[in-house]
Amino acid sequence: MELQRRLGKDRVLLGLAERRNYAYDGIVVGAIPALVVLPRSTAEVVEVVRFARQVGLPLVARGAASGLSGGAVPLGASIVVAFTRMTGFRIDPQARRAVVQPGVVTARLAEAARPYGLTYPPDPASFRTSTLGGNLAENAGGPMCFKWGVTGDYVEGLEFVDFEGRVHRVERKAYDLVGLLVGSEGTLGLITEAQLRLVPAPRYARALMAAFDEVGRAAEAVSAAIAAGAVPAKLEFMDQGCIQAVEDYLGLGLPREAAAILLVETDGDDPLVVEEELEWVAEACRQHGGRVRVARDEAEREALWRARRAISPAIGAIKPKRLNEDIAVPRSSLPAVVRAIEALAREYGLRVVQFGHIGDGNLHPNVLFDPRVDSEERVWSLLHEIARVALRHGGVLSGEHGIGLLKRDFMLEALDAETLAAFWQVKRAFDPEGLFNPGKVLPEPHSRPG
Ligand SMILES: Cc1cc2nc3c(=O)[nH]c(=O)nc-3n(C[C@H](O)[C@H](O)[C@H](O)COP(=O)(O)OP(=O)(O)OC[C@H]3O[C@@H](n4cnc5c(N)ncnc54)[C@H](O)[C@@H]3O)c2cc1C
To answer: 165 in helix, strand or coil?
Structure first.
């Protein structure tokens, strides 16, 4: 086969058993791709784009496939470009910058920066598997996002390959193409390199857990702590279903009876300031009826974050399948939104657990179900209703997981016709032939009901 001849046999997977492994992401199973290419360099990505145009097959970029919106999933005959072999990076400690290929696993960058006293803060809970390319394409966030920001806040420049196989290097100047590419979910071009900003790693961190009898009180405590001037590094929320799932899974001693818990961490270079900031948060929690437990040492602090990281496997163990929502709403609306979602779960007779980065109002209601018993149509209908709750409360469809396939059709309700048309103009300007990740993010304008 021509592409195998050009790139080498091990770089192009043709066997059905191999290709089958590239049909899914963290949540959606799609079509088996016609072929899978594993480039090692930008030049090889250029070859793949040219080949795809020649044979008339679309391209689906793929990092670690930990995505939760179906972004990396092929929809029909397509070529998957898996970036997992583009794992090179170099760190310039003086410039506090890293130049990375897209296949670098997220956690690897922070680890490599540590000996220089530097860090790379964006920390999706999947950071031990996700790739920087996937993070860039989704503009991934994580527990650290309240204080430290999301992936896009760390991008100084990008290299990408366009639909004709041309390589572009763009910076954050006028017509900020970096801003357009970040969060574009593989629909505008293929990111082949990024210049990422590193920051001095904070030297101290303290953490606490606060348990509440009412979800609303937890949200109020967060607002009160922020109003008092606290800027915690991490501000996480778990509802009762989530607490119980993690407790069943790990048995860490979380308060099963609580309606909600907050996990909070402050960080910085001055231990007294870090301590004082944690105390502001603790005081705000107590004033709102929270029972506060401060982690006394590193082991206790680590146990709190182990609980947070265990949410996904813990809830995954409850039912055979789950679909993950990713709404973001103004923080003041959180109590009403959480309650509305609880009411919907009761109405639909489906189990929903909720957690999220509460500082940013980012909530992940997960619908847990058994496809042998529960109708998937009903699950989808519930997801749609949850999205509507977010929109009604002035929120958005996606906080960090992207629109992908899962929420593409909800965009018809989130965007007016003019905005959707503008999005299509951008898409066509970058990708006039529909080569990149077709069927994702943007619904067809004519599919709008009525
Ligand atoms: C347990 C768990 C916890 C998670 N926690 C978080 C969290 O806290 N925060 C968060 O934001 N997300 C989270 N996620 C979701 C997911 O990990 C992120 O969306 C992540 O950024 C995806 O990275 P990936 O390498 O797996 O990308 P993939 O899933 O492979 O791809 C994601 C998208 O990026 C595109 N893409 C990939 N590489 C490129 C490239 N080089 N050029 C152009 N487009 C590309 C793909 O086409 C696709 O649209 C979580 C997922 C899991 C399973």
So the answer is: coil
Residue-wise pLDDT tens digits, 213-232: 998 899 899 989 998 899 99
Q: Summarize pLDDT for 62-75 with one digit per residue, the tens.
A: 999 999 999 999 99
The third-level CATH classification (topology) of the domain covering 2-82 is: 3.30.43
The closest-lying atom of ligand 1 relative to the alpha carbon of residue 312 is 1
The proportion of the chain whose per-residue pLDDT surpasses 90, expressed as a percent, equals 90
In testing the pocket of ligand 1, which one of 73, 401, 427 has its CB within 8 Å of the most ligand atoms?
Answer: 401
Using one digit for the tens of pLDDT, what is the confidence trace for 266-296?
A: 999 999 999 999 999 999 999 999 999 999 9
Q: Where are the beta strands (DSSP E) in 67-179?
A: 79-82, 89-92, 97-100, 118-119, 155-161, 167-171
Residue 325 half-sphere exposure toward CB, CA atoms < 13 A = 33
Task: Let me know if the fold of 204-312 is the same as that of 319-427.
Answer: yes
CATH of domain 319-427: 3.30.70.2740
User: Is 33 touching ligand 1 by the criterion CB < 6 Å?
Assistant: no
Ligand 1 centroid to 326 CA: how many Å?
A: 13
The domain ranges of the chain are 2-82, 89-200, 204-312, 319-427
Minimal-distance CA residue to ligand 1 atom 24: 134
The CA distances from residue 347 to 210, 351, 384, 391, in Å, are 30, 10, 14, 20
Cβ of 102 below 6 Å from ligand 1: yes
Q: What is the CATH number of domain 204-312?
A: 3.30.70.3450
Residue 450: its pLDDT value, please? 42
